[in-house]
Design a protein that fits this description.
The chain is an alpha+beta fold and 189 residues long. It folds into two domains: 59 residues, Arc Repressor Mutant, subunit A; 122 residues, no CATH class. The strands form three sheets. Strands 4-5-7-6 form a four-stranded mixed β-sheet, with helices on both faces. A three-stranded antiparallel β-sheet has the order 1-3-2, with helices on both faces. Strands 8-9 form a two-stranded antiparallel ribbon. Helix 5 packs across helix 7 and helix 7 crosses helix 8. The longest helix is centred in the first third of the chain and has 13 residues. It is elongated, with a radius of gyration of 19 Å. It starts with a helix and ends with a helix.
């Protein structure tokens, strides 16, 4: 049965799993049996135990880890803006939007969750789902950053699509934010 469980896990494209996800994948209802299997997989080097109830394949994706540790959430803010060339200062921290503020250090990865209003967090416009990863497009990450930090300095607004920003801006329901965004783009010419 362990060999069968192992092949199910390795065939799955996900690289990070919770105990609940593994239980559903394997089809086991006995929690003691699941615990024994996870113990075996971890001690035989097939899986890593990253945190209580969170397991990963040895070559796991840290972005996926961030999305599994805090649900609901999506990667955004500096992490996405850095990848898009909007901010230049390198920081290895994975930044995400969630329902509460939290800073985690897991297996050498720093993950910072920033709290966002429930209706904004639930609205997935401008957020892509790629496998087990929810990640904001650069325009949504920009607006999330402006919403959470009005004084934030952006190095380069040119990679951003202004039309997409204007389409997403009503999500935030803030005239003040609309004015800040307009001023930032007026000053970036």
């Amino acid at each position: 049965m362990q060999q069968n469980s192992s092949s199910i896990i390795w065939k799955d494209p996900r690289t990070v799993f919770t105990t609940k996800q593994l239980t559903l994948m394997i089809g086991e209802t006995d929690t003691t049996a699941i615990a024994k299997r996870m113990y075996y997989f971890v001690h035989s080097g097939q899986l890593l135990s990253l945190q209580r109830g969170v397991y990963a394949k040895p070559d796991y994706n840290p972005e996926e880890l961030a999305c599994v540790l805090q649900v609901p959430c999506y990667l955004s803010l500096e992490y996405v803006l850095q990848k898009a060339g909007v901010v230049f200062q390198y920081d290895s921290t994975l930044t995400a939007i969630s329902h509460r503020n939290r800073l985690l250090e897991v297996d050498g990865h720093t993950i910072q969750y920033r709290q966002m209003r429930g209706e904004l967090l639930a609205d997935m416009r401008g957020v892509q789902n790629i496998g087990n990863i929810n990640i904001a497009i650069p325009e949504r990450a920009y607006l999330d950053t402006v919403y959470l930090n009005a004084q934030y300095h952006f190095d380069n607004l040119h990679p951003l699509n202004r039309k997409v920003i204007q389409e997403l801006l009503p999500l935030y329901q803030s005239e003040r934010m609309r004015e800040r965004v307009a001023a930032m783009f007026a000053n970036s010419k």
